[in-house]
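In response to reviewer comment 3 from the previous cycle, which asked for concrete evidence that the modeling workflow produces usable outputs, we include below a single protein chain processed end to end. The sequence was submitted unchanged, and the resulting structure tokens are shown without manual editing.
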Amino acid sequence: MSFELVTPGTPHRPGEPRHDLAMASHAVTKPLQDHPEDPASGRLREPKEACHALARRYEYAGAGRRGGA
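The workflow returned the following structure tokens.
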């Protein structure tokens, strides 16, 4: 089970690890903005490694159930 999909208040700042709040969040995606200095700019999200790990786990669990049903 995942705790959070995205936490918009924790911006991802790849060039500033000390200020990359997405790294410390519980979300499985990183919130991204087209222009971080502009609050009205478009928002996107990018999966973290945890998101991929959950996908693999759910895929594995689903495959086991289909084979035995």
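The helical segments are 49-68. We consider this sufficient to address the reviewer's concern, and the full set will be provided in the supplementary archive.
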